[in-house]
Amino acid sequence: MLLYKGGLNNYCQNTFARGEKAQLSRLTTYGLGGFADKVYFPQTPYEAKAVYSSALAMGEKIFILGNGSDVLASDEGFRGSIICTRKMKGIIRLKENRITCLAGTDISSVLTYCKNNELGGIEYMYGIPASIGGAAYMNAGVGEFSISQNIESVSCFGDICGKIGAEKCNFGYRHSTMRDINALILAVTLKLEHVSRNEICKRTEYFREKRAHLPKGRSCGCVFMNGEGYSSGELIDKAGLKGAKRGGAYISCEHANFIINRGGSASDVKYLIELAKGEVYSRFGVKLREEVVYIGEFNDFNG
Questions:
Q1: Other CB atoms closer than 10 Å to residue 286's CB: what's the count?
Q2: Does the domain spanning 91-211 belong to CATH 3.30.465.10?
Q3: Which of 199, 234, 291, 299 gets the highest tally of CB atoms within 10 A of its CB?
C-alpha cells in the first residue's frame, strides 16, 4: 500500500488527481453533455477514496460516473467534480467460484473472464454497456434477470464504508441502497457457478439473439422503467410517439423506450422524455419513471 504523509487530501492534491475540465459528451454513451468543472480518473480504490474525500472536504458537488450508460448529461455541464471509475479495472478470483471486480471493470470484460475460467450464471448481462459498479448501482439486467442475483457484496466508501452484503443492498427493480446514499462503489463481489465453456457460449448466444432487435445508435438504453402490468415502450408506442423528433434526437421506431441521439442535444432528449411522460399519463393515467439518471441541471420543459 502506498503511504503518503499528510493524509488523503494532500495525496489527492499532489499526485494524479488534479481534476481537469472535461466535456461530458466524451464520457457518455449518448455522446451529449457540456463541460464538468473537474473530472478525475482514479485507477485504484485508494486513489478513488482520495479524490472523493478531497472533493467532499471542499464542499463540492460529486457525481460518480462509470461507463456513462444510463445517464443524460446537461448541455450546461456539471458544476462540481465527476469521479469517473472507468480506469479502475481488475478482477480477482476468490475461492468457491467467487470473483471480485473493481468498480470500473466493464461488463464485457467480466463476461470474457468468466467464459475463460468456466464461471457461469451472468450470461444475461451480455451486451449491456455498463461497468460492474454502475450495474450494481442500478441493479441492471434484462427481463426477469438482474445482477443482484449474482452479487454477494458491494464495497463502498462514503456514508457507508466497507462491504455491504447483498441482503443489505435493498435490491429492487433498477434500485439498490447505493442509490439512496452518498457513496462511491469501489468493487463488487460476484457469486458464480462452474459451467463448461461450451455451455456458457450457448447461453451467451441465446441472450445475444434476444438483444439483436434493439435499436442501434447513440442512446442510454431504455429510458423508462417498466411497471407492474405494463411495458413503458408499448405505452409510448400506443401513444403514437414512435418516430417523434426534436432537433437531432428521436424516439426509436424499433423500440419506443429508446431515444436515439443523431446530432442532437441533451435538451432535445429531455424534451422527448417529458413528451413521452406527458402523453402516456394523459392517455393511460400511467406515470412513467425514468431509468436514466441526470447529470447537471435541466430547465423545465413546457413544450
A1: 15
A2: yes
A3: 291
Report residue 177 as a C-alpha cell. 441502497
N-to-C CA span, the chain: 55
pTM beyond cutoff 0.85: yes
Best CA proximity match to 28, nearest among 261, 203, 228, 225: 261
The residue ranges of every structural domain in the chain are 9-84, 91-211, 232-295
Length of the chain equals 303
Q: Which residues contact 227 (CB under 8 A, 6 or more apart)?
A: 286, 289
Query: What is the C-alpha to C-alpha distance for residues 221 and 258, in angstroms, rounded to an integer?
Result: 6
Which numeric CATH code is attached to 9-84? 3.30.43.10
Dist. CA 255–CA 222, nearest whole Å: 9
H or E segment and range at residue 204: helix 197-211
Question: What is the C-alpha separation between 112 and 132, in angstroms, rounded?
Answer: 13
Q: How do residues 140-155 score in pLDDT, each as one tens digit?
A: 999 889 999 999 999 9
